[in-house]
Design a protein that fits this description.
By secondary structure, the chain is α/β, with parallel strands linked by helices. It folds into 2 domains: 163 residues, Rossmann fold (3-Layer(aba) Sandwich), CATH 3.40.50.720; 118 residues, Jelly Rolls, CATH 2.60.120.10. The protein is built from 8 helices and 21 strands. The strands form 5 sheets. It has a 6-stranded parallel β-sheet with strand order 2-1-3-4-5-8, with helices on both faces. The longest helix has 20 residues.
């Protein structure tokens, strides 16, 4: 399908577009603030709309009114030609809870439902719990984005503890994409119930271990998602991570991975001079590169952007470069001799679910809304 995605430049919008790019099923027509004026034209050319754009910070009246006004614009675009479309709304579990935000989201859902049904289309109301994930804005998208920023900058948190249902942005994005098929109605993806204090304690433990390049014990997918969120905030300023080399008259020894728990897989590759490996990204996987012989350039690009970061590394001085999730990456042998690289991932390779999506690092132009 051709799918208009509103809020495409925001936190959840970016995650959804990356996941759609990985899946390669739908053609996404992104709409952000800068091109909101194109909404009607884009909706007319589309088969479906995923409405993510919203307001969750500001004066109470502005928050309520902002969510209603955005939905009204989408509703008018849906009714402009009377074509039946599938409409998926990124709603919140706070919808209808009596707060200005909850009232605004509830009113917005009703407007979209009515417009979709009047045109003979289908409306799916996806009520999401509290979201977190890579590249969230501190003090805006989630308290976890604030926590990882505080940890990265050496700050401390004033915590009011309470249980919170949490869902990473990638499964949230998948829930919205899943809503592109099947019956209409309300869908409520389950979050993980965890306390605010527990989140801070986990992130603090992860940061302490990772400060020396150690991989912390990751006992669940939720903990992997938290760790990936922290790593995204630390990248690229905290890289490369230096390794200690132990040398004597026999040669030298370098510990490339120290994992405190969980599964993992190590492999070694050789690369001829001038050859590039990689050119892909991952949605969930932690992947580590350590060059132990030869010279290389490791380059990374945040998916859907032109933001590129490169590191020149040498086996004479081994360092760790960990690939952040949703960054396309490659490694090129820039030396005259064969390159030897040790790779480590936090999960065993599964050909049926490899979490590896082809994407070149260097592009002439990137569709970055």
């Amino acid at each position: 399908m051709k799918v208009v995605v509103t809020g495409a430049a925001g936190f959840l919008g970016w995650h959804l577009r990356v996941r759609a790019r990985a899946g390669g099923v739908h053609e996404v027509l992104p709409v952000g603030r800068s091109d909101w004026h194109r909404l009607h034209d884009l909706v007319r050319s589309a088969d479906a709309v995923i409405h993510i754009a919203g307001v969750n910070r500001g004066e109470p009246a502005q928050v309520e009114r902002g969510n209603v006004e955005l939905a009204r614009d989408v509703a008018r675009a849906l009714e402009s030609d009377g074509k039946p479309r599938r409409v998926v709304y990124a709603n919140s579990i706070q919808s209808g809870n009596g707060t200005p935000y909850g009232t605004g989201k509830e009113t917005a859902a009703e407007m979209l439902r009515s417009s979709a049904e009047r045109a003979g289309g289908t409306f799916v109301d996806v009520r999401l719990p509290n979201l977190f994930g890579e590249h969230g804005r501190p003090h805006y998208n989630s308290f976890i984005a604030t926590f990882v920023d505080l940890i990265a900058t050496g700050g401390s948190a004033d915590i009011v503890d309470r249980p919170v249902p949490l869902l990473h942005a990638q499964p949230a994005a998948q829930a919205l994409l899943d809503a592109m098929s099947g019956p209409g109605g309300v869908r409520t993806p389950a979050g993980k119930d965890v306390s605010v204090q527990r989140v801070w304690d986990l992130l603090s433990t992860f940061a302490k271990a990772y400060s020396t390049g150690d991989i912390p014990g990751l006992a669940s997918q939720f903990e992997v998602e938290l760790f990936n969120t922290l790593r995204a905030t630390l990248f690229p300023e905290r890289y490369p991570i230096p390794l200690t080399s132990h040398a004597d008259d026999r040669g030298r020894l370098v510990e490339t991975v120290r994992s405190h728990g969980g599964e993992g897989q190590t492999f070694v590759s050789t690369t001829r001079p001038g050859v590039t490996r990689g050119e892909h990204f991952h949605l969930r996987k932690i992947e580590r590169f350590v060059v132990v012989s030869g010279e290389a350039r490791i380059s990374l690009r945040k998916v859907l952007t032109n933001e590129i970061v490169s590191f020149d590394v040498s086996g004479e001085d081994p360092v760790v470069i960990d690939m952040p999730t949703m960054w396309a990456h490659n490694i090129t042998n820039t030396g005259a001799e064969e390159l030897v690289t040790i790779f480590w991932t936090n999960e065993l390779f599964d050909p049926a679910d490899a979490d590896t999506y082809r994407e070149p690092v260097l592009l002439e132009e990137v569709d970055a809304c």
